[in-house]
Design brief:
This protein is of the alpha+beta class. The chain is built from three helices and four strands.
Length: 95
Amino acid sequence: MKQLLTLFEWFHFHILQGLGSFLGIPDRIAIKNGRVLFLEIKKPGGKLSPGQIIFRDLILSHGGEYYRIDDLNKLIEVLEEKEDSAHAHRIIAKK
């Protein structure tokens, strides 16, 4: 996952869980062209914990982007979608 984010030129970092961290905070945050992705990395078919569901809902309610990633193809799909959206946004802004 890390290598794929780097290949797609996203700035990304792992979030360490621990005392004082927000309950349910995702594993990784990725940023590119003003977009911020909150990424929860799971084994195939893995489910979100109750704390992760609450965190996800908070992010989504504030217009953020949150994804549960359980395979590389899903991550590629999300990253390519964001690339296309960012490219379209730049084209619209130039008009």
